[in-house]
């Protein structure tokens, strides 16, 4: 009710009272004369004023606050908790208005809290790292979260309100739900999903929802993506298998030749020398393998203590070049280096030397006689780039990413001949990454390869 209406209603009362007094006057005054008439008129006037004052008082203190209260309760019923009523500093209705305002304030706070709690729950559920589905005791889906939809790739309207077995195809999930209902206990299953064309391993955990009086009210299904865990597990298995395999070959060979020597071959000078040479070579291999493994495990445990400093490339490189020239002469491969003058790198000189040497040794090993190997060091905008280039056997496209894995070799037999363990590039990658750099390879089969290491100037 607006202000105008309120004043109007007060005027209505006034008009009513004035008319009543006027009528009384009309009826009573003709029956009186003289002083009596004056007295009656005067009394009527006094009475009229008193009644008006009383009415005004009643109107202000009762009618107006009650009307305002009715308006406020109307708004509260509609759910508008922002309304407040005006509280007069005195008067009978003061308490009513105060209490009403308090009620409105409490309701408003409760509404805000409820809203916040609701949105908090929603935020938590939607931002969980695992998919979630809530199924009631009759099997109807009540809730799915964002991660679930990401995994299964549909809209929530495709699930909510439907029976779980109508909207989930995988029988393993049905089994988890049924067993959770049956045993009223946590149940675990596993499924595979293809998410954006990648295969993902998902662990499905079903947990019963039980209310205060221990009645089963439904099931919560949680979907954990365990693809990375599986990968790590697989890598661990591969690693153990690879190490055993790598060790088995030289050990078998050492044992075989030692037995042959003991069986009488050691009496023949020529055989003795030949077999002992093989035994030495094989044991050197084992030693190299063990050393590389130790090195790698040290790097992976992040024990790699880099002793970093500013490396002046001009002072750091000659050592590497001398070693490489010897290597080049041995295998009659042309080697040349193209190093920009005056460069400096921030890093661990010994570790970075290991990187360059490993890459260069590979380049020599996987390039036939008469080939070419080169080393370039260039200044780029944000990086110092080290390029090791050869025109050797090259790397097939499908192997390009894998060569940085431990033990991965494109051609096992060939690499083993060069004494390789397949750990060199894994170590190189670790060191480069510890320097916050990147390594990549460009290669064409039978044309050659270029390994590019980029080390940031600032990090
Ligand atoms: N420059 C290159 N040209 C062609 N293939 C290469 C080159 N560098 C590496 N590879 C391939 O990548 C594989 C992995 O290299 P990596 O250096 O890790 O192992 P490795 O050379 O076999 O043994 P090592 O641990 O002794 O270095 C090699 O076996 C080889 O097949
Ligand atoms: Mg190597």
Summarize the structure.
54% of the residues lie in helices and 19% in strands.
Question: Stretches where pLDDT falls below 50 for ≥5 residues?
Answer: none
User: Quick one: CATH superfamily of the largest domain?
Assistant: Histidine kinase-like ATPase, C-terminal domain
The overall pLDDT average reads 89
Q: Between the first and last Cα atoms, what is the distance in angstroms?
A: 69 Å
What is the makeup of the main sheet? Answer: 5 strands, antiparallel
Outline: elongated
Folded structure, characterized:
This protein has 459 residues and is of the alpha+beta class. The chain folds into four domains: 113 residues, no CATH class; 98 residues, Beta-Lactamase (2-Layer Sandwich), CATH 3.30.450.20; 71 residues, Signal transduction histidine kinase, dimerisation/phosphotransfer (DHp) domain (Helix Hairpins), CATH 1.10.287.130; 148 residues, 2-Layer Sandwich (Heat Shock Protein 90). 54% of the residues lie in helices and 19% in strands. The strands form three sheets. It has a five-stranded antiparallel sheet with strand order 2-1-5-4-3, with helices on both faces. It has a five-stranded mixed sheet with strand order 7-9-10-12-11, covered by helices on one side. It has a two-stranded antiparallel ribbon with strand order 6-8. β1 and β2 form a beta hairpin. The longest helix has 45 residues. It is elongated and about 165 Å long. The relative contact order is 0.05. The mean pLDDT is 89. The site of magnesium ion has 5 residues, from α10.
């Amino acid at each position: 009710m607006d202000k105008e209406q309120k004043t109007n209603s007060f005027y209505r009362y006034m008009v009513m009272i004035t008319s009543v007094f006027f009528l009384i006057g009309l009826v009573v005054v003709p029956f009186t004369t003289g002083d009596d008439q004056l007295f009656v008129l005067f009394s009527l006037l006094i009475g009229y004023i008193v009644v008006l004052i009383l009415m005004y008082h009643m109107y202000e203190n009762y009618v107006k606050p009650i009307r305002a209260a009715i308006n406020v309760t109307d708004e509260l019923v509609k759910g508008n908790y922002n309304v407040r009523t005006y509280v007069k500093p005195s008067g009978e209705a003061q308490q009513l208005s105060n209490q009403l305002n308090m009620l409105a304030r409490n309701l408003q706070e409760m509404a805000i809290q409820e809203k916040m709690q609701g949105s908090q729950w929603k935020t938590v559920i939607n931002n969980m790292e695992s998919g979630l589905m809530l199924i009631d005791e009759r099997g109807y889906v009540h809730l799915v979260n964002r991660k679930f939809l990401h995994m299964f790739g549909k809209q929530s309207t495709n699930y909510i309100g439907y029976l779980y077995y109508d909207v989930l195809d995988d029988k393993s999930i049905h089994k988890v739900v049924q067993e959770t209902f049956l045993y009223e206990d946590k149940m675990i299953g596993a499924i595979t999903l293809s998410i954006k064309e990648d295969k993902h391993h998902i662990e499905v955990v079903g947990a019963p929802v039980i209310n205060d009086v221990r009645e089963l009210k439904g099931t919560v299904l949680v979907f954990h993506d365990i693809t990375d865990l599986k990968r790590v597990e697989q890598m661990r298995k591969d690693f153990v298998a690879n190490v055993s395999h790598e060790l088995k070959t030289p050990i078998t060979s050492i044992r075989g030749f030692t037995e042959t020597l003991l069986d009488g071959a050691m009496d023949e000078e020529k055989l003795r020398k030949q077999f002992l040479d093989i035994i030495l070579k094989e044991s050197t291999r084992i030693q190299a393998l063990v050393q590389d493994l130790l090195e790698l495990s040290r790097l992976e445990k992040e024990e790699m203590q880099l002793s970093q400093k500013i490396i002046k490339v001009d002072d750091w490189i000659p050592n590497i070049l001398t070693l490489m020239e010897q290597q080049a002469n041995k295998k009659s491969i042309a080697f040349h280096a193209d190093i920009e003058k005056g460069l400096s790198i921030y890093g661990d000189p010994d570790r970075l030397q290991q990187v360059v040497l490993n890459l260069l040794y590979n380049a020599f090993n996987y390039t036939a006689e008469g080939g070419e190997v080169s080393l370039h060091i260039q200044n780029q905008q944000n990086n110092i780039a080290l390029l090791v280039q050869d025109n050797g056997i090259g790397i097939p496209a499908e192997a390009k990413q894998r060569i940085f894995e431990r033990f991965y070799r494109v051609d096992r037999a060939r690499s083993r001949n060069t004494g390789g363990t397949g750990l060199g590039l894994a170590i190189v990658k670790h060191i480069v990454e510890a320097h916050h750099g990147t390594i990549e390879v460009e290669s064409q089969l039978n044309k050659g390869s270029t390994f590019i290491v980029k080390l940031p100037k600032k990090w």
